[in-house]
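Proteins fold reproducibly. Next comes a concrete instance:

***
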Amino acid sequence: MKRTKRSKLSVALLLSMTLLATACSNGNNETNPSNGSGEGGAAGETSSNANTPFSYPMPGNIELTFMTEAAGSVPERMPIDDEYEKRTGIQIKNLGGAPMTDQKFSLLLASGDIPDIFMNTWLQYPGGPEKAVEQGYILKLNDYIDKYAPNLKKALEENPEIDKMIKTDDGTYYAFPFIRSEAGRVYGGPIIRKDWLDELGLPIPETIDEWHTVLKAFKEKKNAASPVTFRTMFLGERTGGFAGAFGVMGNFYVNDGKVTYGYLEPAYKEYLKTMSEWYKEGLIDKDFASIDAATVDKKMTSAVSGATFGWQFYIEKYNATAQTTDPKANYVAAPYPTLTKGTKPEFGQLDNAYAGTSSAAISANSKNIEAAMRWLDYAYSEEGSLLNTFGIEGVTYALQDGKPVYTDLVVKNPEGLGSDQVMQQYSHGTNFPMIQQDNNLPSKYPQTAEAIGIWKETNHESHLLPPVTPTAEEADEMASIMNDINALVKEAELKIIMGTESIEAYDKYVEQMKSLGIERALEIQQAAYERYLQR
């Protein structure tokens, strides 16, 4: 098959993490497919008739229904959607979102009217992904990958560690995965106003004691009503937060080959004691238990708060917003804290290359299985990866010496949009079933690009629990146990930090966790972890 120009990108652009044998390269977060020719990356693909070569676009004007995992109404159609349809030949009717924990998701399953493609975190399905297959909701993909997904198949053959992550212990493939690039696995951490630090003659804090000094100075000398603000998800569950300084995290993780539950550890009590003291001193936002992301943004850009925990793009957003009224405003990443200066924090924020999110399963009752497979497989082709990463040639990028270079639409957007805002319209970037490439988006603020290098300096990798899959029976038992325990630990955290219960009450909560079966949950996780290592 004749290869297009896009297939000839320099091999030097390939990332060591890439799961594609793609000659296209330097990509970043999630992005899109290729042009309407459908040539590059489709070589060797065959339809259900093994003797009939397959190439995009697929004939037949097929329409598929699609649902995402993000709660909300049907998203606005973007140029990337039109381009995807042109290149694959497959129309997608987006039905909106239904997270795994949402009632809409349960009602959808009960109705039997399941979309052709359902994107969600199938690792969280009650009973596990194998149960979803057994119950006849989603398709076991093994045989269909061999027939209709040559790009995904090739990627998995060339990357056995990723292959290991996206199947169950018995070898069942249940979804097309979203795979993060190596650089994309870290994307969040502490953010602080460096202009305030400079004004106060203080360095960027590295230890818990230094953070205490800084937050007191923000309160007393900058009149910050909420020196540090954050949502509860940053307490120590999604990231190490301040908890990581104490060598714990509020979740399951691995210590020297043993699965551990951070809330049971004595160090977690020490962490909560410190947070309750800070809250009493007025250093932590008094509304943190109920605050939303928009309110955090307002406080961070209006001098109410000087520090938070958030994602990388927050840095660009805060600088762009605050500098319109205060040109000296300067938001930067701070390292995850420790107790002892000069030591490396045990925890920060780090995702597995496959964390289970944005995984696209196909309905077991779909009348268009081949089309669904072909549409999803396109993202793993060379052209699909290029589109998902850099957008549309001639619109968001041009090839120069075989390398993609962004156009002024991205770099100097006439409407004043940031490069990430533009690419959200013309590529998929993240949270889409594909293999993420590093797109090296240009940024007006070097602080944004510098953040990842700062946040990645932790020992989190050695503690990361891979995407294990308990058996259906184990998963049911785990869900029964953890539903009650999750509610308990959240209640305990908030009561202790906010001072409605003393720190001594945590011992009582630990005993309650044990009575609710946390030790059995640890046994299940340990067994699943050991099976995972044997895959």
DSSP finds 19 helices and eleven strands in the chain. The longest strand covers residues 90-97.
